[in-house]
Amino acid sequence: METTAMALMERIFQTVFPLVAIVGVGFFYARARHTDMGIANRINIDVFCPALIFSVMSAKSFDLPTYSTLAIGALIIVLGSGLLLWPLCRILKVHPKTFLPPMMFNNSGNLGIPLLVLAFGEAALPAAVVLFLVENLLHFTVGIYLLDHRTNPFNVLRMPMIIATIAGLCFSTFNWTLPEVVQIPIDMLGQIAIPLMLFALGVRMTSVDFSNWRLGVWGAIMAPASGLVIALSLQPILQLEPLQFGYLLMFGALPPAVLNYMMAERYNQEPQQVASIVLLGNMGSLLIIPLVLAFALQFG
């Protein structure tokens, strides 16, 4: 029993430490030198992430129906978290447009993809990408609509990540292949995405604003709590295989996405409060993720 516990602790450490290390490098580098990640983040969203998505989606081993139920579970967690926590906005005396998006749209990119890959191995990468795409697609449609009802949800079809997804699925479905001389640079560009996401998260954490710390603490607790409650409630209905249930649990436990702050700033929706929710939520995940991971690894 003691040996099993030690092995579990070692696996959790091996999963979490690389993430914390890269985030830490970004944090301390940005503390030492002024670091503007705007251009790097834009390139990551427009080039590196689409390359990663295409690389995974176009692989012959990727079978979309395998992850369809998992995608449904992720969709319900995102939308259900907003519905579940809507009444809390009145208690906290915060506008729903400020509080609910960070509760719904989690850090499935910067943290979710590397977390699942490190915890469950490279075989988890397709599932991690599917979860990321579900969350991202909802964020750029439902999320933007929550902040501005005049937005056109079909604009999402012009996003490089969505174009890469469609192209990748076409290649996978019709068994098309690119010449190796083209596929290799695409794969290499995709490999940049994950460490750059983590580094950017560390840089962003240097701007933590503690002036709204109470709301931030509420967010740090309620974001993973709502996701986990919904994930556990869904399993008797969805009947996911154990490994995919582990993925869904980790997805439900993820903290708010940094993109929530950028959206709040763009639409002038109390960005400082959103910044506190997002950044304190990501700091709180250092405590929550290992606990949930210890439970989720039982299904791995």
UniProtKB/TrEMBL annotation:
It is found in: Cell membrane. PANTHER family: AUXIN EFFLUX CARRIER FAMILY PROTEIN, SLR1864 PROTEIN. Gene3D superfamilies: 1.20.1530.20. It comes from the Bacteria. This is AEC family transporter. The keyword rRNA-binding does not apply. It comes from Marinobacterium alkalitolerans. Signal peptide: none annotated. It is a multi-pass membrane protein. The chain crosses the membrane at residues 12-31, 68-92, 104-121, 127-147, 159-178, 184-203, 215-238, 244-262, 274-297. InterPro entries: Mem_transp_PIN-like, Na+/solute_symporter_sf.
